[in-house]
Amino acid sequence: MKEIRNVSIMVIGETGTGKSQFGNAYLMKNAFDASSSPESCSPKTISCNNIINDTCFHYIDNPGFFSSDNLDSPHTLEMVEFLKKWKIGINAFFIMLNIQCPRFSQSTKQMIRFFNEFFNDPNFWTQTGIIFTHCYEGYFDRKTGENHYRSAILNFIQTFPGCEKLNLPLPCFFVDSYEWETNLSVQQECQRIRNFASQFLPIPTQKMKLCSPGFKIIEKKI
């Protein structure tokens, strides 16, 4: 019998970007509760998996940072405890943005900074991509995502110590997860994401550096 390989990914994004619904599309099954509500559908960090083409793909779902229930610190602590018990590591990491309002907000920057501190390894970013959600056919601009927002995220990552000269691929993916069962384009894009994750060895999370869950970026008021 052929040995089943484990490949796991983790996605971060603000509440409402569609992390749970994308998890269903990625795993090709209805694994997570999802809705269009601005309230977080994921009260805690959980994982689900599905075997696709002799590979067991794992998807780690987590509450959105700065979620509407104001429980960011407890959620962060719970997420860190989950990751420290996650034994198979993470093959790829994704930053999720809603392409219908894809502003590179301070909370998104805080999420990126938090995980840079948590993994404490510049090479971690070579296994990272960007997923744009709500990509309704005819109602989104792929070039804007690939050029403007990718560049903004790349430039921000390069401000971290040790990351200044990183030449990151930082690939972009575009999905409309709500019709994943019938939308061939979404299925193909999810396969691209699985292929991207599968090329990397897993990064262990059990001994990662813990930064303060109360870490905040303060915007200057003009």
Mind explaining what this structure looks like?
A hairpin with a 2-residue loop joins strand 2 and strand 3. The protein contains five helices and six strands. With 222 residues, the protein is α/β, with parallel strands linked by helices. It has a six-stranded mixed sheet with strand order 2-3-1-4-5-6, with helices on both faces.
Structural class: alpha/beta
Largest sheet: 6 strands, mixed
Beta content comes to: 15-25%
Overall helicity: 25-40%
Rg calculated over all Cα atoms: 17 Å
Q: What general form does the structure show?
A: globular
Counted beta strands: 6
Strands of the largest sheet, in order across it?
2-3-1-4-5-6
Q: Which sequence of SSEs, written as H and E, runs from N to C?
A: EHEEHEHEHEH
Number of helical stretches of at least 4 residues: 5
Terminal Cα separation, in Å?
Answer: 64 Å
Uncertain ranges: 36-40, 67-71, 213-222
Average pLDDT taken over every residue: 85
Provide a brief overview of the structure.
With 222 residues, this protein is of the alpha/beta class. It is 30% helix and 17% strand. The chain has five helices and six strands, in the order βαββαβαβαβα.
